[in-house]
Every structure is written in C-alpha cells, then in structure tokens.
Amino acid sequence: MFEILKDLGIYGIAVAGVLEATILPIPMEAISIPIYLSSREKIVYLLLVLLVFSTLGSVLGYLFWKKVSGPIRHHYLQKEMFIKIKKLYEKNIFLTLLTSAFTPIPFEGYVIVAGILEIEFKIFLLGAILSRVLRHLPQGVLIYFYGESIVKNIGVYSFGIMILIFTVFLIKSLINKKIKKGNI
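Request: output the structure for the sequence above.
Response:
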C-alpha cells in the first residue's frame, strides 16, 4: 500500500493524510519523506496538501466517532464516569494533541478518543491543526534544506522539538499554579 501511495505523489500524500487521522495507523513519513525527496522544489505545496488533508481526516474521524460512539458510551460508561473522564481529557486536550505529534501512539487514537468523549470541537480542531504542523513542517523544512543527508536524523530533531514543547507547557503549568496560590 505504501508503494502505491508513494507512486501517486501529491495524491498519495492527500490520501495518506486523511487515512493517517482516521482508520489506518500509517507512519506518514514512510510516504511523505520519499515524495519530498523526489520533489524538493514542491515541498511547500506538498506540506500544505498534507496539512489540509490530515486536518480533514482528523475532522472526519472525530465526527465519525462522535456519531457512532453514543451506544458504546452509554453501555460501558456510567454518566458520572463519562463526565469525569471527559473533564480530565478536556483539561489536557490541547497539550495532549500537541504532544501526539511526537509519540509513537498513532494519531487516530487521539482522534477516536476525542470523538468518543465529544471534546469541544474548536479546541480539538486547533490542537489537531497545530499537532499536524508540529509533526510535518519541521520534516519538510529539514528535507528542503538538507535533502537526503538529514533523513536519518529526523527522529532526533522531532524528539528535541517534543522535549521543548513539553518543557514550555510544564513551566507554564507551574507558573499558573503559583499564580493561583498567590505566590507570584
């Protein structure tokens, strides 16, 4: 399947972008990186297509799981338990979606949970867009400037970005706690 998507070029990126966020745990890099390398002059366009279609896939996955999960939720979760889980997830949804760009957990897992828990759509959408940008933009930029030589180190750079984002949010959280306690 990867070979077919890679052979389709920009259409393969569009299809893979939708599938990545909906039904298949596709490692997007297996498709996007070879296409980027073969079309370095079109990377900006390819990135834009990937980001749009991955976001579209996120929205479709969210809406699908929101629609079909009602009976599942009502059968397996007591209303109080559902509300408690939803509040916990909503409290951290933005950070969760941002960091999802760098975890080995397939992105559609986050989309499925957000849909099942009926997370506020605006927050979900913003988090999904930013997570896709954080995941794919650095790869495209690095390949544009460094080509094949950077490919083997992309994981290192992605991990570094994840650590940076996590650190910023951790510091922000600690400052917010201090402000609430009146220590700042």
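The chain has a mean pLDDT of 79.
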